[in-house]
Amino acid sequence: MNLDLIGAFTVGLVGSAHCIGMCGGIASLVAIDPSSSLTTKTKLGNTLGYNLGRLLSYALLGALLGGALATVVELAQISQLLIGLRLLAALLMILLGLYIGQWWFGVLKLESLGKGIWRYISPIAKKLLPVSHPLKAIPLGFLWGWLPCGLVYSMLSWSIVSGGAVEGAVIMLTFGVGTLPSMLAFGVGATAVNRIKTSRLFRTTAGIVLIGYGIFTAIHALSMFVAH
Q1: How far apart are CA 108 and CA 222, in angstroms?
Q2: What's the superkingdom here (predicted)?
């Protein structure tokens, strides 16, 4: 399996504690709103639909960015651009590891990049609440996938250097799949799973793993630059 895909899944898995903080409230509202009279089956369907929509939005963003840069590189014939951006992606991975380990929170400044777009998307998403059917949860999840998120933006830097639209979509989709265990557990009220994810030991271990992977990616990118 491609190392980037393994890395993307790992980032989603260990970074999902941040996803709970960003999207957990809406995920809980979609599925386990105590004021709702929906059946358990419908609530589960809402949770699945919401997360399906969220993953579709990630895949679309990855395809758009991955395809756009691949076109630029092909037209301009600047292969060194990909190497430089891969170094940037490695740096963002290290910063993300520092955030997950709760040692430095600078990566959250990336979230300000998407606030302008979110200002227009948020009112549309809120109109889809309350969710009465799983099919209604899908577009809600798709729109909520555009919520400004440093974790998502860090992964988008990987999709940019993936080499194409399909590759970018697959990387973001794999990242999204990594976030599913925590998001689904939170959606159905399985707090024990997420208590582990938010523990100090888990965050420290996850942060070290991400920093290590970022350093490995940077070394690999530098070796490619020297080879050119």
Answers
A1: 26
A2: Bacteria
Whole-angstrom distance, CA of residue 76 vs CA of residue 70: 10
Report pLDDT digits (tens) over 98-150: 988 889 988 888 888 888 888 999 899 888 888 878 888 899 999 989 988 88
Question: CA quadruple 42, 43, 49, 50: dihedral positive or negative?
Answer: positive
Range of the domain at 220: 3-227
Read off the pTM.
0.86
Among candidate residues 119, 120, 92, the one with its CA nearest the CA of residue 108: 92
Encoded amino acid at 104, one letter? W
Number of domains into which the chain is organized: 1
